[in-house]
From TrEMBL:
CDD domains: TMPK (cd01672). InterPro entries: P-loop_NTPase (IPR027417), Thymidylate_kin-like_dom (IPR039430), Thymidylate_kinase (IPR018094). GO terms for biological process: dTDP biosynthetic process; dTTP biosynthetic process; dUDP biosynthetic process. GO terms for molecular function: ATP binding; dTMP kinase activity. The keyword Kinase applies. This is Thymidylate kinase. Phosphorylation of dTMP to form dTDP in both de novo and salvage pathways of dTTP synthesis.
């Protein structure tokens, strides 16, 4: 599960307002307290170019194919410039969203063709040895859209995705469920409707069970 350098690639997934960022920050702190080198990053984003693409994605109206091309372009730059070098240094890379989000938002939410998404995934994440760069572990913070919307209403102004109706997030959630069913070892579902402390306890339990935390 680890890279040859001891690097580890962990991703955080779920609909907007599920609690990803909160737990990513806490896990980074816990890992650093144990002496691990940690690279915190996010998608789309993580490099100057990818952050510019992120701003376009969140602000400019575009069709689903353009969205998919933009997120995979950002991902390519992010992998080359940040994720692969950090893994090569032996870091634990904690990434707020990755390709599962594309299958959930563009595939599930927008109804875009998953066959094309899979083609883009294979182009962008090819590891040069016939394989695919994928996360070692993905934490899926699963929560009904109504609960996430209530949390977000209290927390921040909505961007282009967060302004979508609840039915969009039902489709996104179903997209995550399909990805989790197809990769049950890599993607761990957490019940994110629980109070913050209970979700955190689940995060700790999974990370200890997988050897991410001592
Ligand atoms: N389990 C929880 N119970 C109640 N509120 C939560 C919980 N998890 C996160 N929150 C709150 O919900 C809001 C969105 O959380 P955040 O971590 O930013 O979600 P995401 O990164 O998934 O969009 C924040 O105000 C956060 O404090
Ligand atoms: C990575 C990714 C994100 N997105 C969307 C989902 C989110 O609504 C948005 C930004 O993600 P996020 O970082 O979760 O937003 P915030 O900073 O508001 O918590 O981009 C996609 O549509 N496809 C993707 O492949």
């Amino acid at each position: 599960m680890t890279t040859s350098t001891g690097g580890l690639f962990l991703t955080f997934e779920g609909i907007d307002g599920a609690g990803k960022s909160t737990h990513l920050t806490a896990l980074a702190q816990a890992l650093r307290a144990q002496g691990r080198a940690v690279q915190v990053t996010r998608e789309p984003g993580g490099t100057p170019l990818a952050e510019r693409l992120r701003a376009c994605l969140l602000e400019e109206p575009m069709d689903a194919l353009t969205e998919a091309l933009v997120v995979f372009a950002a991902r390519r730059d992010h992998l080359r410039c940040v994720i692969e070098p950090a893994l090569a240094r032996g870091c634990v890379v904690l990434c707020d969203r990755f390709t599962d989000a594309t299958f959930a938002y563009q595939g599930g939410g927008r109804g875009f063709d998953p066959v094309i998404l899979r083609t883009l995934e294979h182009w962008v994440q090819a590891d040069g040895a016939g394989g695919l760069r994928e996360p070692d572990l993905t934490l899926w913070f699963d929560v009904p859209p109504a609960v996430a919307a209530a949390r977000l209403a209290a927390a921040r102004a909505p961007d282009r995705f967060e302004a979508e109706p609840q039915v969009f997030f039902e489709r996104v959630r179903a997209g995550y469920a399909a990805r989790a069913a197809a990769a049950p070892r890599r993607i761990v579902r957490l019940d994110a409707t629980q109070p913050l402390e209970a979700v955190w306890a689940e995060v700790l339990a999974v990370c200890r069970a997988r050897g991410v935390l001592a």
